[in-house]
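re: the backbone from monday

yeah here it is again, tokenized this time
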């Protein structure tokens, strides 16, 4: 399933990498596209949206 989030605190590629690592911890097979310029994260995953959201927020990036 495809999920999109807006992450206002994602400021750079290091932030995008941290978000990607957080998602991969929940779903190693997930496909992640994080764009710091638009603050958008697109994730293709088999995990529930709540699990992905919690992983991103636990990494220190609140979902806007």
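seq for it, each position gets an aa:
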């Amino acid at each position: 399933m495809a999920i999109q989030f807006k992450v206002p605190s994602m400021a750079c590629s290091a932030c995008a990498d941290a978000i990607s690592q957080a998602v991969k911890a929940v779903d190693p097979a997930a496909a992640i596209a994080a764009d710091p310029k638009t603050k958008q994260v697109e994730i293709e995953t088999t995990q529930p949206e709540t699990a992905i959201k919690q992983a991103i927020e636990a990494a220190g990036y609140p979902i806007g």
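Residues 22 and 59 are 6 Å apart (CA to CA). The radius of gyration is 10 Å.
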